[in-house]
Structure formats: structure tokens, C-alpha cells
Amino acid sequence: MVDKKKDIRAFTKEQLRDFFMNNGDKAFRGNQVYEWLWVKGAHNFDDMTNISKDTRAMLEANFVINHIRVDHMQRSNDGTIKNAVTLHDGLVVESVLIPTDTRTTACVSSQVGCSLDCKFCATARLKRMRNLNPDEIYDQVVAINNQSKHYHNRKLTNIVFMGMGEPLMNYPNVLKAIDKITSDEGLGMSPKRITVSTSGVPKMIKKMADDEVKFNLAVSLHSAIDDVRTSIMPFNSKFPLADLREALQHWYSKTKKIITYEYVVWAGINDQQKDVDALVNFCKFAPSKVNLIEYNPIDDGIFQQATEKAINMYVNTLEKNNITVTIRRSRGKDIDAACGQLANKNDAVV
Ligand code: SF4
After folding, report:
1. Is the pLDDT of residue 301 over 80?
2. Which residues, at least 6 apart from 304, have a Cβ–Cβ distance to it below 8 Å?
3. Which residue among 21, 86, 120, 243 has its CA within the 20 to 30 Å range from the CA of 198?
4. What is the 342 CA–ligand 1 centroid distance (Å)?
């Protein structure tokens, strides 16, 4: 028999207030339930101790609370934590806590699998099964915030949408999750501490700009030469660099926010002077920052980290052109939690 009960967490506070009023109760009851769901993180109606037993039974009869479960947790030697998160329908996504001396960052997933086919990415091997709901995204953040407090004695400081999936292919739900994360009734985090990382969907970047979002944008670029980019990120043939650049120009004209580019330099793919020259040419229209990310091989032998010499060439050329550049060492490699390695491969359970 199909369960007809609705997920109560899909309801806004106003909808919950209406529900109680329409059922002969006070609108205020909706506020109380909402607080239990979103501030206190209740997973059962019986946890809602300031709600009468009869009301709890009525809620139980009509609704479910579809929460996530962190079934597996792995801790790396460097303090990174990878969570395997089971969703209410049994599907699994991963999220990662990345600690440094000054911050704790949550890397969260937005889809189960991914419909894009980036050749260097382990997630691409999992077909896209579905989009995550706003609450499933929010729950990953709450779980990591709790782990941050437990293991590092501090709250989460930053969030990046760089886990499984392309966040702009699930834009409405990502936006709702961020609303909840930043609201006082959620985690009250500043949107300035949130970065949505996209492989570059021009139409959606323009929409984000028009929506005047307050969070940051990062683009996984990896090459500013169409042929090269298409060979490693095939969807580039549909969304070529000229369209991406036009969308980013629109983003910058609206937001005046610096644009971050995520970029891996691979041996034999994009490690020549012409590659970095194309990158400079692509991003010089606006204040930009390039994160050169250390690559974590996914056992296919094709993609290998470039030499130090090639990385230095990138750094020197970018700096000469007044483009900020940082080198990002990967974290959590020993537990397959590093960038591009998320593929539901969980060996150890802690
Ligand atoms: S890099 Fe991102 S967009 Fe590309 S396949 Fe992996 S998860 Fe999807």
C-alpha cells in the first residue's frame, strides 16, 4: 500500500499555521511544530513535548518526518570527515567536513549522482537518480555543524555546494535550502559564507544574478579552450565558453562579486603556456580568483596531476596578470573524500 502521508517538512510555517487553524486549533501550534522541526531537529512527533498527546497522534496519522540518517562516518588522518547519508527512500549521498586552523567547511551534495559526465569525476559514474529536497540538503549541513561542534569545538563556518551533483540543475531546492540555512529559524549563517560551485550552466548563472542572490559563485572551469574543455566536460559542447563568459559578465555586472574559478592542471591535458594564456584571457574581464586544486586520481590512469613546473607556470602567469591564485591541497584523500572522489565508496564505519 502506498503511504499517503505527507512529509511535514515540505510545509512552510504559514502552511502549518493554516493547517492547525483549519483543524480547530490555534495558529501558534504551527509555530511550535515548525520550531521542533527546524530549530530543534525533531525526528519523531513524540519528541515534541510541548504539544499535547492527542495532537501528536493526529500529526502521526497524517504526516511523516523524512529526515536523513548518517549511517557511515569516516574520519581522515587530517581531521576530514566523510558522511554517507541515507535518504528516506534508501538512496545514499555523501557530504564532507573539512577542518582547517581557522574554519570548518561543509561540502554538501545537491543531487543523488549527476547527469553531467565530467570525465575526471567519480560522481559522474553514478547516474543522476534524483534531486535532493531542500530539507535533505539542509540536514547535511546540520549534521556537519553538529560534528564540527563535537570534534572541533566550534560551529561550522563555511558551506560549499561541491559534493555530488550540479547544484544549478537543482536550483529551486538549493535556493530553498540556503534560505533555511541563512534564516534565524534555521542556522542563521551569513550567505557570504556559502559558495555554490557550478560546472557552468549559463542560463542558471544569469538567473542567479537576476535573483540577486547573496551567496558566492565558483565555476569549475578546468580549461578555457573549448576543444579541451569539451573533451573533459562533454556538456561544454552544449554550453560553450562564449555563453559561459557572457553569463559571468552578467553575473558580475549585477553582483560586483569576485568570481572564483576551480581549476585542476592535468599532465598532457591543460599544462601548457597556451592553456594558462587562454585562462587569463577568459577571466580578466572581472576581478577573479583561481583556485588550483590538487587532483585525486580516480584509478582510470588518464588524469594525472601535472608537474610542479606546470603549476608554477600557472601561478606566475596568473600573478603577472593580477589574478589572485591559490593552491588548494586536497584533504581526506585516504577516505576518498577529496574533490571529485565522492562515489558512495564507504569501506570503514566509525
Ligand atoms: S564534477 Fe560536478 S558536475 Fe561534473 S560530473 Fe562531477 S558532480 Fe557532476
Report:
1. no
2. 266, 267, 268, 295, 297
3. 86
4. 10
